[in-house]
Amino acid sequence: MEGQDMDQPAEDVNSGDTPGDIVEDVQESVANDAVAGTNVSQNDISMGDAAGCPTELYNYCVKPVQVCGAWSELSKSITKGCKWSTDGSCILTSSDDNFLRLFNLPNCLFQLPQTLYDFTFQSSVLQCKESGLIYDYAWYPGMTSADPATCCFASTSAGNPIHLWDAYTGQLRCSYRPYNHLDEPVAAHSISFDASGEKLYCGFNKMIRVFDVASPGRSFDERPTNVKKMGQPGIISCFAFGPQGIYAAGSYCKTVAMYSESDGQLQFMLSGHQGGVTHLRFSPDGTRLYSGGRKDFEILCWDLRNLGKVLFCMKRTVTTHQRMYFDLS
């Protein structure tokens, strides 16, 4: 799934080559991260776990089927991105009219057998308005529709603190207020909950600030990423949380850095993107990290067991400076 975001300033693009092996046919390379689908007999990819247990096959040659859409309320604005809720029951979108919109999946998608769909036009069930340009937003990782207390998401926008919204009512639950060294309020460029949902990580220029989700306000932990020209420079643009207490942070200075969750110490720095890093995802088994850059025609895959070089590259089409999301299953 891909989305778009135009909230951050673009940077110059290098003409240098990206290290690593280019994979022209990525079907086999990404098989373990694909969603199991229809059983087919040709042009399929067989998937299985480490124990050799057989799973379903996925046919990459079959084009996706469009089953529903939402255009009426978005016809006069640009959709910058969409993100699935943790339980997969709804989608949260961001657009340049400074609205966050929540869409429920149509009931036909939950009915079996899923062979024929009536094309339906969806309307948002919830709208949250920010007063400034929305920079980033994130679902609470423990969200499940069966427990309303967990149904919430955070957002950051220009000139505003970080807001935590109720996904059932659309009401503002609380705010997290970052300040700089001059005691001036500053807006986060990127936000992400950690895997446990207890911490909220926020990206700034050469700085990561970490809030305790249970303690809204202006109390946070500061973690500089670049001191005396040492470390990761630039605006921290995205996060991804992996296994064993580590997380990855992308920068608009075209680098990806691995940090320790406990103390924020830099563990490893990766480079190879032609543009600023805009999106990161760990594989479900936690052994690989995928990264995408602004106006970068490759998604790079890194093996956490051997970070010295790019494991492989996947080609994509990116013709603008807009942020392009991707996701794994």
From TrEMBL:
Pfam families: WD40
Listed Acidic residues bias regions: 1-10
Source species, domain of life: Eukaryota
MF (Gene Ontology): acyltransferase activity
Species this chain originates from: Ixodes scapularis
Similarity remark: Belongs to the TCAB1 family.
Extent of the signal sequence: none
Protein name from the UniProt record: WD repeat-containing protein 79
WD repeats: 270-306
UniProt keyword annotations, A-Z: Acyltransferase, Transferase, WD repeat
Cell membrane found in the keyword field: no
